[in-house]
Amino acid sequence: MEKLTAILIDDEISNLKGLEQKLGKLFSEITIVDTFQKPEDAIAALKQQQPDLVFLDIEMPRINGFDLLAQLDNIQFQVIFVTAYSDYAIEAFKKNAIDYVLKPIDDKDLIVAVNKAIKAIKTKKEIDNNLNLVNLLSSTISNNNKIIVPTSKGMSFIPEEEVLHLEGYEGYTKIHLINETTITSSYNLGRFEKLLNATFFKCHKSHIVNLKKVRHFENEGYVVLDNDYRIPISKTNKKAFLSLFK
What we know:
Layout lengths: L3 E6 L3 H14 L3 E7 L2 H8 L6 E5 L7 H6 L7 E6 L5 H6 L4 E4 L4 H35 L4 E6 L2 E6 L3 E7 L2 E6 L4 E4 L3 H7 L4 E5 L2 E4 L3 E5 L3 E4 L4 E3 L2 H9 L3
Parallel strand pairs: 1-2, 1-3, 3-4, 4-5
Antiparallel strand pairs: 6-7, 8-9, 8-12, 9-10, 11-12, 13-14, 14-15
């Protein structure tokens, strides 16, 4: 099982020791890399390192748990708040905590909270790994004039000359091909915009066209592609589009 790292923050040493023991007994895959009683020390450490999981006491002297997080610019870890007061629950979730547990900590509550955090961590890593793979493949095969389309079944490698345009649709992207078929990707249009080369032009917030397939420009605000596909072009993009053909 993949190892995960955790940092524990609580101003009372007895609470730190107790939580450390429970985690050691219940979750062998979690390695506690550090513990802090002073929130100032924890802030300094979290600005330098990103564990997978942080157990954070809310009520601490000088700086409470919410204020501690507010002082961090880049939060990549999952947070489980630890508190003696159930009234903090709503505020905890407003701060995007994965969960919270009440003191004294019940084993069952801790197991539920940690399992939820582990699931979120694994999901995020899978998404990050997939994006890294797409970026790597994009740079590797760009000279072959193909674009990579992540789909629900894997990845498709589509020659640029087969693509008419890409259409954003409810967070997904439809890739329209010259044979009048489409491929749907779970990536949004903005993600594709970053991956595509200069052969493609975003003419509208919901459309990216293959410039090699452009056949006409209509003054009323449309680009006509092969197969008589008419794609809207926004007023703000008209000038940049027409300049490409001067």
